[in-house]
Structure formats: C-alpha cells, structure tokens
Design brief:
Blueprint (H helix, E strand, L loop, with lengths): L3 H24 L59 E2 L13 E2 L4 E2 L12 H10 L3 E10 L8 E9 L7 E9 L2 E9 L8 E7 L2 E7 L5 E2 L2 E2 L15 E9 L4 E11 L8 E2 L1 H5 L2 H14 L1
Antiparallel strand pairs: 1-2, 3-4, 4-5, 5-6, 6-7, 8-9, 9-12, 10-11, 12-13, 13-14
Length: 295
C-alpha cells in the first residue's frame, strides 16, 4: 500500500498538467470556456452629447447713434461750456414736486426714491412723495446748426435715471446768447422701442429727429403715444419715425410728413403719416387688407 505522501505528489503533478494544457489551448486560439473576449462582446451605443447651447442673440445698441462721435467739435463758445456741471429744467411730466431744476455734478445726478408702503400714514406719504427726485446722467453733447442761422447750437442729451431699467431721454437745445447758453427747446422721449431717441442731427437748415416706434414724434415737450398695433419688445424696436422741425424764432415747428421706416431695412419705402391711416376706420381697413394680400 502506497503512502499518502506518494498519492499527494501524483495529484499535484496531475493538476499542473491540466493547467499547462489550458494555457496552451488559450495561446493557440482555441476556446476553453463559454466566456467571450472583450473584443467579441457587443459594444454599448455611445451616449448622445448634450447639444451645444445656442448663443443668445445680441440685443441692439439703441444708444449707438446718439452716443457716436458725430458733431462733437465746434468753434462756438458752447463747445467750451461745462454742461456736465449745470442745472437743467425738467420737461412736463418729469418735474420735481417742488418745481426745482436738476443739477448735474460731473455729468450725474442720483435719483432720490422714497418707499411708500400701505402702513405709512397720509402725511408721511405726502412728505416722502415731495422728497422724490429723478436722476440724470449725461449721454452726449453735440454741436451743429439746428436753427438754420449758420451758427452751431449745443444739443445736450441726458438719460433719465429712475432706479429701474427704463431708458427715457431728455434733450436740450441751446444757443449762445449774452455770453451764456440760452435754452431754445427741451423735450423728453420715451423708453427704448416705445418712442425712445434713436438720432438727432441737422438736415437742410432744420432739426431732424428719429424716435423708435411707428409714427412717433414730438408735441412740445412730450413724444406722442404709440398707435394701435405698435406692440413690440422694449429691447428690439421694429420701426422708427423720422420728422423735421424748423425754428421760427420762438419755437421749433414740425415740418412735412412723418415717415415710419423699418429698422431692419431703412432703405425700404416708408409709411407716410401712419397714425392718420390707423386712426381712420376706412383707411385702416384698406391698409390692413393690403398687408394681408402682400402676404
């Protein structure tokens, strides 16, 4: 009877032989079990990439023309005057409660706002209202002949600061008289596409004004309201209106037709006195029908 040590040695040798055979089978490319190699396994489909976010459309710079470099120099004494530190009367609708002027310091005047809550008494509310003030900031001063007299006037453009996002403007036209600026006209414009100031410049001895919106123009110190159907985002006006004003020695009087242009194609034929059309039931019906036929 063989010893147990002998039997153990035989078993070890047999096991080593089996491992050697398995190794050879693998190296020769023969399958030794049912498992597949990584290369033969089916590939998982690639996960779709998140689409690249589209860039937000760039909003138009509605201040580009009034803040550009045109008409910045003049030989008039007005060009040497300090309009950044000056007191300006406020136009109708924007006056201070006490009727005081707005004084710029280094081109700025901070607004004064007072909270008016429901828990405030009537006397306190009246006091706070009386202390409210709009702010102003200087946008540009331009020099050109606005009256047709051959001499440059100063056109000062200020932005009204309300503490919000609105961008109404106030425009002042000065002549030089008695060694000081003399105010000829001041007016307020609307907020961006809602009658906001697009451009102001000289044209054939007159003052040319462009306001954003359909058939928007000045009536004294205030711009006209929007016409029916002129509803657009404040950021992105679709139309602007061009009008002319002639100095008669006392006032700037509007001249000629009011022309409404497309902002996307200013060379296209404008609408003439568009508000008159939309305010007339017969004319507005014909116009709307013609627009449908064109589509």
């Amino acid at each position: 009877m063989r010893s147990s040590g002998y039997i153990l040695a035989v078993l070890v040798i047999a096991g080593m032989s089996l491992l050697s055979v398995a190794s050879c089978a693998t190296e020769s490319g023969h399958e030794v079990n049912s498992a597949k190699t990584i290369e033969d396994s089916p590939q998982m489909p690639a996960l779709p990439r998140n689409p690249e976010p589209e860039p937000s459309p760039q909003l138009p710079d509605l201040q580009a023309e009034i803040a550009d470099g045109r008409y910045r120099n003049s030989t008039s004494p007005l060009a040497s005057f300090d309009f950044l530190n000056y007191s300006y009367p406020l136009p109708r609708g924007w006056q201070n409660p006490d009727g005081s002027d707005a004084k710029l310091e280094n081109g700025k005047l901070a607004p004064v706002s007072e909270h008016l809550g429901e828990d405030i008494g009537d006397e306190e509310k009246a006091r706070r209202k009386a202390e409210r003030r709009i702010g102003l900031s200087h946008v540009a001063t331009k020099y050109f002949d606005a009256t047709g007299d051959g001499e440059d006037e100063a056109v000062v453009i200020l932005k009204i600061e309300t503490g919000g996002s609105a961008i109404p403007q106030v425009v002042y036209v000065f002549e030089w008289k008695n060694d000081a600026p003399n105010l000829l006209w001041h007016f307020r414009t609307g907020d961006r596409s809602d009658g906001g100031l697009k451009d102001i410049r000289p044209d054939s001895g007159m003052l040319l004004l462009e306001l954003f919106g359909q058939d928007r123009y000045m009536l004294g110190e205030i711009e006209t309201g929007k016409i029916t159907g002129d509803e657009v985002q404040l950021c992105c006006p679709t139309h602007f209106t061009r009008t002319w004003y002639k100095w008669n020695g006392k006032h700037f009087i509007r001249q000629g037709d009011r022309l409404t242009f497309l902002t996307s194609d200013p060379s296209a034929e404008p609408l003439v006195n568009f508000g008159d059309i939309m305010n007339d039931p017969v004319k507005s019906k014909k116009f709307l029908e013609s627009q449908k036929n064109r589509q």
